[in-house]
């Protein structure tokens, strides 16, 4: 045994020496690639050409030490080669390599092989490289994608697979994962489109507070399973979006990503453009389907997953939990109907726990975090018209900026590509007050002189959308390191409001009626108040800040490492007619769920948005989509009325199929597992108690049978509003009260029990490694049936003599502002639907640096800068863009100006791009 250890030690050292030499030899060529790495597409081909030489060295060292290749390998080779060729077909065109990672990759690869060989020789010995020893055979196939010399590759690959097969148990028991994060802009149309969430016909987007993102993580076993989780700054996931994203992933990666292991979850902001869902009832107020909303979300999710995939590197995960005070129960009377014995187990009537995952790259340190915490995305009210990620989007923005200041992730501050007509500073600009960098322009006379020398530029044409890449934050990672990604995900927020001051009548200022949330019998007067009341942006900031602050705390103190398998299970369930076994005082009983239906209390809305969805007769005059579908409303059958009791049915959506399905009946449920963290993906909004019951049921299954795989320390989180949307889920007892959440629990009183029954099955499958590939019925793809009634942009114009980008209301000449002041300027503009400026910006605050260059300081992704768009009248072709900046306390004193970007449409339909800047002003 000792001999064997010495042998492996000797062999691994020699192999490592070869690897080091190889990497050293190729450093020059890697640097060459670095210099032109602004081209996104790199050239893996020449790298692949080098690989056989390396594998040859490796192979000969192996044979020298252990003799000729075993007979097993000779038999297995042809089979394995066939398998590899199959994989290559899929991977061929996805070859995308960061050359800077290549040396690292080769090192990891060889270290993994040494590890594999040593363990396959059944030696109780840990190679000294434990800790960085990891690689993924899937990734390896990239390198073969375009190479023709299969024979060498085959042998090399066989050796790799052979050793993996022989010790896969050992590899899997290792605590390490490959981790990749990604983020991409999904900001939809900032004009004319109804906002998703409040279903308020009058809430039409007209500007941007800050941008929306799709943020993804992928965790993969070195060889084996992987899961991808996407957090979407949107009201909820959409079945159609999920279907189309999965189609694209399949085309790109084959079976690597599917509905089984990809989850797409919405944060529940009520301030994002709607029209991207497929079922009729969710697109009434958006005048049907809105292609532009839909496309930008599908594109952004796909790109964020691609980024995460390309960023996969060896890393570690940590989990931490703590309490946040950022929500109150908005239906306490329903909560109180839950059994007293159950309620007494909990201190609060909402879940205050935040569960945070911290992602750490083995080489670079912290690269991001995802957390789950329950509170509605309704800090911004039902009359807000600015696109916003609400409190969770704000928290994510704060934390990513915090990480940048801490220099996690990308080291460089920012990179600015010059827009035509502007000067720029490639060095980047520190946006916040720093003790290292002294304030520029200290002399106030000098400041005044500078301010007076910069007048508004007047509107200028730009050559194309590529000219509008000027922004403060990078989309793509610079150099070798990825950007820090921080996501604030939604969980069982069904009855949780961020309007924590309570509910008050807007006429009297007195608290609303406790049971009905009414004022003198009227629900439309009762509103919840956020902590910044009456300023909803301030409320959003405060609730966002509370989540951000706790997340940073949990991030900094996370010490519990995540260890164990990566697994997943998924099933499609027909919730319209599911038999559910429930226990009652009379013993076990089989009950059924019902086709979807919405109760009367649904129309009353909630205290976050009263009177949310008015379907009453006579009120449908203004909505053309409602005119199309309203006549198709159908009376519920007797069976349905009985099934849904005590819910009085307002809309029998589950039985309404014209012009196409009004509500979903087939829902996806899914469990993702990474070590001791288990994520339950549900397609709806569970109330506090409903969520607790589901988590407890799953925990009971996982920790019950004494199989030892999970102990009491398993972390179970619910990912709400995931993969599709089917409104609310209350407990049976809360359902009896029929508040908004009960009225919106679609499948009848036993909806929650149906979820619990089906999730128990998924949880047992985790324990038994059972394959649940019987997927049941598939949800429909209704893309071709969608009706869109939102009129297109016809044309944009300016008054004669004026240009797009000219000032309509400039900053006063020679003006000076203090931090905390609000300064604004208005430009002649065009409809933002002409181009979403994805990864660009409509608004900039520029700063005059010490060498008299204008550099971007704040853009439309900043919390302090608002882009407000408006038309003088509904049918006018003219429009205004107002940029409003609340000067932050940490901004640098100096000279600033506004810059606006936009895109206009001509009569013939062509799109032109423009910009313009305001008169300069001073901040002291
Ligand atoms: Zn909700």
Automatic annotation (TrEMBL):
Neutral/alkaline non-lysosomal ceramidase C-terminal domain segment(s): 759-923
Gene3D superfamilies for the chain: Neutral/alkaline non-lysosomal ceramidase, C-terminal domain (2.60.40.2300)
Subcellular location per the Swiss-Prot or TrEMBL entry: Endoplasmic reticulum; Golgi apparatus; Secreted
GO (cellular component) term, any one: extracellular region
Pfam families, A to Z: Ceramidase_alk, Ceramidse_alk_C
Bias kind Polar residues: ranges: 409-428
Location of the Neutral/alkaline non-lysosomal ceramidase N-terminal domain: 177-757
Record field: catalytic activity: an N-acylsphing-4-enine + H2O = sphing-4-enine + a fatty acid
GO biological process terms held by the UniProt record: ceramide catabolic process; long-chain fatty acid biosynthetic process; sphingosine biosynthetic process
Cofactor names: Zn(2+)
Protein name as annotated: Neutral ceramidase
Upper classification of the organism: Eukaryota, Viridiplantae, Streptophyta, Embryophyta, Tracheophyta
């Amino acid at each position: 045994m000792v001999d064997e250890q010495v042998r492996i030690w000797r062999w691994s050292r020699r192999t490592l020496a070869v690897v080091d030499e190889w990497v050293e030899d190729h450093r020059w060529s890697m640097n060459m690639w670095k210099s032109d790495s602004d081209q996104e597409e790199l050239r893996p081909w020449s790298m692949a050409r080098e690989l056989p030489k390396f594998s040859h060295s490796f192979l000969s060292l192996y044979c020298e030490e252990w003799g000729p290749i075993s007979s097993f390998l000779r038999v297995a080779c042809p089979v394995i080669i066939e398998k590899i060729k199959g994989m290559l077909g899929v991977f061929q065109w996805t070859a995308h390599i960061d050359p800077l990672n290549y040396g690292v990759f080769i090192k990891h690869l060889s270290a993994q092989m040494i590890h594999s060989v040593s363990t396959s020789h059944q030696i109780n010995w840990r190679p000294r490289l434990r800790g960085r020893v990891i690689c993924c055979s899937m990734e390896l196939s990239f390198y073969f994608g375009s190479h023709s010399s299969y024979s060498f590759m085959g042998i090399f690959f066989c050796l790799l697979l052979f050793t993996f097969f022989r010790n896969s148990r050992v590899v899997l028991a290792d605590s390490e994962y490959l981790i990749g994060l990604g983020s991409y802009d999904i900001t939809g149309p900032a004009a004319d489109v109804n906002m998703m969430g409040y279903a308020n016909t009058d809430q039409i987007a007209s500007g941007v507070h800050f941008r929306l993102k799709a943020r993804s993580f992928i965790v993969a076993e070195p060889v084996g399973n992987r899961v991808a989780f996407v957090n979407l700054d949107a009201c909820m996931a959409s079945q159609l979006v999920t279907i189309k994203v999965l189609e694209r992933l399949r085309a790109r990666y084959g079976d690597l990503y599917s509905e089984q292991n990809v989850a797409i979850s919405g944060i529940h902001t009520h301030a994002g453009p709607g029209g991207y869902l497929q079922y009729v009832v969710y697109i009434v107020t958006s005048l049907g389907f809105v292609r532009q909303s839909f496309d930008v979300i599908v594109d952004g999710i796909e790109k964020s997953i691609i980024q995460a995939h390309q960023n996969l590197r060896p890393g570690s995960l940590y989990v931490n939990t703590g309490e946040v005070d950022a929500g109150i129960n908005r239906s306490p009377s329903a909560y109180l109907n839950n059994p007293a014995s159950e309620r007494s187990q909990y201190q609060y009537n909402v879940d205050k726990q935040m569960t945070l995952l911290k992602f750490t790259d083995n080489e670079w340190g912290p690269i991001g975090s995802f957390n789950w915490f329950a509170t509605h995305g309704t800090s911004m009210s039902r009359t807000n018209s600015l696109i916003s990620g609400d409190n969770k989007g704000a928290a994510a923005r704060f934390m990513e900026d915090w990480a940048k200041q801490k220099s996690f992730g990308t080291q460089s501050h920012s990179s600015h590509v010059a827009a035509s007509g502007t000067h720029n500073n490639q060095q980047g600009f520190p946006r916040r007050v720093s003790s290292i960098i002294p304030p520029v322009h200290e002399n106030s006379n000098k400041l005044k002189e500078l301010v007076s020398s910069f007048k508004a530029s007047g509107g200028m044409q730009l050559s194309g959308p590529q000219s509008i890449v000027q922004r403060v934050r990078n989309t793509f990672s610079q150099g070798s390191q990825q950007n820090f990604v921080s996501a604030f995900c939604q969980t069982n927020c069904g009855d949780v409001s961020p309007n924590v001051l309570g509910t008050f009548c807007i006429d009297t200022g007195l608290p609303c009626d406790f049971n009905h949330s009414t004022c003198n019998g009227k629900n439309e007067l009762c509103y919840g108040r956020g902590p910044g009341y009456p300023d909803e942006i301030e409320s959003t900031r405060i609730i966002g800040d509370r989540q951000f602050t706790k997340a940073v705390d949990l991030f900094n103190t996370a010490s519990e490492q995540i260890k164990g398998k990566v697994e997943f299970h998924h099933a499609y369930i027909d919730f319209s007619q599911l038999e559910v076994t429930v226990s009652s005082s009379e013993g076990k009983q089989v009950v059924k769920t019902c086709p979807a239906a919405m109760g009367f209390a649904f129309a009353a809305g909630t205290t976050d948005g009263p009177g949310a969805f008015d379907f009453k007769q006579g009120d449908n005059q203004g909505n053309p989509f409602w005119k199309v579908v309203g006549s198709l409303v159908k009376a519920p059958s007797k069976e349905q009325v009985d099934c849904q009791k005590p819910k009085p049915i307002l809309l029998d959506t589950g039985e309404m199929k014209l012009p196409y399905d009004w509500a979903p009946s087939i829902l996806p449920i899914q469990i993702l597992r990474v070590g001791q963290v288990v994520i339950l993906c549900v397609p709806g909004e569970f109330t506090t108690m409903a969520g607790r019951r589901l988590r407890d049921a799953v925990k009971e299954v996982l920790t019950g049978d004494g199989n030892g795989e999970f102990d009491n320390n398993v972390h179970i989180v619910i990912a709400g509003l995931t993969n599709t949307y089917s409104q609310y889920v209350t407990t049976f007892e809360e359902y009896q009260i029929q508040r908004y959440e009960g009225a919106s629990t679609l499948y009848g009183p036993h909806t929650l029990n149906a979820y619990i029954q089906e999730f128990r099955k998924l949880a047992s499958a985790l324990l038994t490694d059972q394959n649940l590939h019987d997927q049941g019925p598939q949800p429909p793809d209704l893309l071709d049936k969608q009706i869109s009634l939102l009129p297109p942009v016809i044309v944009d114009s300016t008054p004669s003599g004026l240009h797009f980008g000219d000032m309509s209301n400039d900053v006063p000449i020679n003006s000076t502002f203090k931090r905390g002041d609000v300064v604004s300027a208005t430009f002649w503009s065009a409809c933002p639907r002409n181009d979403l400026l994805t990864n660009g910006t409509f608004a900039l605050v520029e700063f005059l640096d010490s060498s008299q260059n204008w550099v971007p300081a704040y853009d439309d992704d900043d919390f302090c800068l608002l882009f407000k768009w408006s038309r003088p009248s509904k049918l006018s072709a003219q429009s205004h863009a107002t940029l409003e900046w609340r000067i932050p306390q940490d901004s640098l004193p100096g000279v600033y100006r506004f810059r606006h970007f936009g895109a206009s449409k001509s009569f013939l339909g062509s799109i032109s791009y423009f910009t313009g800047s305001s008169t300069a002003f001073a901040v002291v």
